[in-house]
Amino acid sequence: MTKELYIFSGLGADERVFQRLDFSAFKTTFIKWIVPNNNETIENYATRLLDQIITAKPTLIGLSFGGIMAVEVAKQIDTEKVILIASAKTKKEIPFYYRLAGQIRIHKLLPTKVLKSSNFMTNWFFGATSKFDKQLLKQILIDTDPIFLKWAIEQIVLWRNRIQLNNIFHIHGTNDKILPLAFVNCNQEIKNGGHLMTLNKSDELNEIIKLQL
């Protein structure tokens, strides 16, 4: 019987960020982000995403914010395994400066235009080095729904989860500038991997994920 995977993309992104990972041996569903309701909690949003999951004890794979959402989904249903890439398992793995910004509501002051802009700083933070990676990141930011973007940022900086699930396998890059390795306790490090290592460290990721599945 073919294993079924449910994959959660990064903040505002879609399956394009996974195009260099090989899931051909599995039945794969990419979870689609939906528009958040007004003042919706991350727990309620996760509940609404369950409509897209039809498998008993599925395997979830989440990148960045998608990993956070995969954790929230896995708190509500039985899962076989949860694989996180460049993400966080609990609030303690969110850098303290993000959490501080959330407490004093600095994130509310950031204009959408700034959040969706693509420049050398954006490329540096995400670890986009090649022309292809930079162009894809730029297009993803353009395509990102601004309502979802601002909602998701708020969920990250205000995330309260303290529950440590026992079936998580966490992969993190040593050069991740958005969620630095110093703040997380991962199972597998990828040397020089950044926040978009699904694109530029795909060979290593494919080998690691294959062993986990």
Structural commentary:
36% of the residues lie in helices and 13% in strands. The protein is α/β, with parallel strands linked by helices. Strands 2-1-3-4-5-6 form a six-stranded parallel β-sheet, with helices on both faces. Strand 3, helix 2 (65-74) and strand 4 form a beta-alpha-beta unit. Helix 1 crosses helix 2. The longest helix has 13 residues, at 131-143. The mean pLDDT is 88.
Q: Helices and strands in order, then pairings?
A:
Blueprint lengths: L3 E5 L18 E4 L11 H8 L9 E5 L1 H10 L6 E5 L10 H8 L8 H4 L4 H7 L4 H13 L2 H12 L10 E6 L14 E3 L6 H4 L1 H11 L1
Parallel strand pairs: 1-2, 1-3, 3-4, 4-5, 5-6
State the gist of this model.
By secondary structure, this protein is of the alpha/beta class. It is 36% helix and 13% strand. The chain has a six-stranded parallel sheet with strand order 2-1-3-4-5-6, with helices on both faces.
Please state the CA-atom Rg, rounded to the nearest Å.
16 Å
| pLDDT averaged over residues | 88
Can you summarize the main beta sheet? 6 strands, parallel
Q: Give the SSE string.
A: EEHEHEHHHHHEEHH
Beta strands, count: 6
| Beta fraction | 5-15%
Instruction: Report strand order across the widest sheet.
Output: 2-1-3-4-5-6
Approximately how much helix is present in the residues? 25-40%
Count of separate DSSP helical elements: 9
Poorly predicted regions are none
Gross morphology is globular
Structural class: alpha/beta
Distance between the termini: 13 Å
